[in-house]
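Project standup — Tuesday

K.O.: blocked on the structure for the chain from last sprint. Re-posting the sequence here as requested.
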Amino acid sequence: MTDVQDLVCRLVSIESVNPTLIASGSGETPISRFVASWLAHEGLDVELVEPIPGRPSVVGTLRGMGGGPSLMLNAHMDTVGAGAMSGAFEPTVKDGRVYGRGAYDMKASLAAIMIAAREAKALGLKGDLMVTAVADEEVASIGTSAVMERFGADAAIVTEPTELRLCLAHKGFVWLEVESRGVAAHGSRPDLGVDAIGQMGRILERVVELDRRLRRGDGHPLLGTGSIHASLIEGGQEWSTYPARCVARLERRTIPGEDGATSTREIDQLIASARDEDGALDASVDVSLERSPSDVGADSRVSRAVAEAAKQAMGKEPEAIGVAYWMDMALLNQAGIPTVAFGPSGEGAHADVEWVDLASVETCVQVYLRAAELLCGGSGR
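H.V.: unblocked you, prediction finished:
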């Protein structure tokens, strides 16, 4: 069993299901103990960041010799639930792949940055190299948020799986709650009742039209266009009563230049349009959660360093991409830390069959090491 394979399997075997998703999940405490002990044994300065009891993140720092910029390597420790996966926390190795919950998303990446930090001791780096193994990325990202309150860096690499491609951008999202208000009355009294669900229907028709307009518009070169869809709806009391209230929860996927404020204005305009059609319509919109998109230029120092490191490791330029899903990269960029993503290959994030390609994990270790040399300054190998 190779060093990388052994560590990936060990991490997968530690159940770290996010308890916000699955109440019986162990959370990050057991795996954080292992990661902290491993990093400390390898000579890193280790600190725990635990803003909520039972939800710790680990920060391990390989101190540089001084005079160089710092680099942060980021991976999350939590996973989604096992679902219908058989032996989810009993990793198996077959044909160069590790199978198990979290192997791909993203314990292989965690193993890669741990090993990279260990091997970086031989590089004589001038700046600090930091490993941040964070909690709760699968839900609210309390881990990276809390780490950012206490630690900074001059550059960062989020090691989410990217199939060995250089991710420069990702979409954000806004969760919007739209409420329409009617008047409750007996179903036989249309003269008294106002149908809140019917009012919401007028709004949702316009949401569908808005989505079509968005997807026909000008988009980001790596991300394409934004989008919007209805996710959840509830309303009414019983069959024989006019519903007094209806709530629709919408998700607006955003690209750079779009945010919660612009999304709210869009829905306000839809409500106003529906009110022009039905003067009795009474509705409003609020933002429940917002996560910003992320965008880093290909000419930024961290982008160029990771691209050069990947080219040396793979013998070719990595493909520059943007992705539709959200990740902690946005939080780091918002904190003023130029950040890109680069990670291993595999399949099955959140699916019933999940695996990571071990050769790609080995490649990632080499990319992270060379990127650290380029960004932190090193004496060479």
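K.O.: great, moving the ticket to review. The chain has a mean pLDDT of 96. The first helix runs from residue 3 to 12.
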